[in-house]
Amino acid sequence: MGVFGIRGVSPAPNVLNWAGTFLQVRTMFEHAWTGLRDRFSSSVLGTTSPSVPGLGGGLSRPYRLAVAAGCWALALAAALLAASPWGTLFFFPALMVAGVFGGAELALPALLLTLLVCRYRFAGVDLWLFGGAAAVLTLLALAGREMFRESRRWGVRYRRLLNAMSSAVTVSDEHGRIGRPHPELEKLIGMKWPSYAGRRWLAAVHPDDQKALLPDGPSEDVVLQRAEIRLKDPRNGDWRWHLMRAVPLTGADGEVDEWISILTDIHDRKLAGEQQAMVIGEARHRLKNLVTIIGIAGEELAPARTRSGRRGVPEALPRPPACAERRVGPGAGRQLHDRWRRARWWRRRWRRSLETDSARLSFEAGRG
Questions:
Q1: CA–CA separation, 44 vs 42, rounded Å?
Q2: What angle do helix axes 127-165 and 104-121 make, rounded to 10 degrees?
Q3: What predicted TM-score, i.e. pTM, was given to this entire model?
Q4: CA–CA separation, 23 vs 34, rounded Å?
Q5: C or N terminus of the chain, fewer CB within 10 Å?
């Protein structure tokens, strides 16, 4: 029995076979598209290349010539097979590819060659109309190429800047799954693609720090997420501190579509900060003990007024013997007062010295 008491009907074996075949074909196309996308992103855009490309990089000239010539040859073959003036429409995609990939040095020769073929092979084509449309399409392709190259230059600039400021840059979906190669991350965690695909890259994060990667509230309200995490160093297996800063990218509906994150090595700064905190804490403890001791000594040596109103030996202290009083003389109160003033001076001097040392340590640690 199914839901609400309805008897379930098992699908036919043919339906299951067709569904399995469809899923296999779909998976194959997805893998092929992912590979083509990653290759284009690495070779043309340079976003996933092992090294940062130059501003004028991209595909090599022989490769671009091969792509443009191949597309034009396919268009010529399709037009000849059509054996009709309408077959000349296949030249338009070829001219577009020549303009986008080859630029003016390949688009203009392709345009002239197309006009010559149409003139001598397809007599029924209005050459002026076809030539004008082909020229407009070629100009649009060249304009699109310049816009694309400018966008690529800005991508290269930002990547070079991020490489100088951070150790790695990652792009993941709304659940933190990585879906494409990241060369900088591979060098940082020592894992090769696709061993860190999905959420398997968390294997390089310390188990105690993995919960710090989850946002505290709704992702839509997060502007910048910061977390200090430890990543395993592939060189020696030690844990190194890194600062991870992530920014959500939202879609038109306001939901988070992707997370872009940068990782910065702060291991040395983290250890220096901990050492600085320990030194400052120890200095404060010593200062507190010294001030306490000096305060107690100052209270014991502080002069007090006698009943007659003159400064002298405090009445709370035991009176010295007569021989000691004769040896000290009537200036004993003045001597105690001088000792008390010297104790206060030394206490202020020690406090200023320790405060100066603490400020110097804080400044040096901040510069480091």
A1: 6
A2: 160
A3: 0.59
A4: 16
A5: N
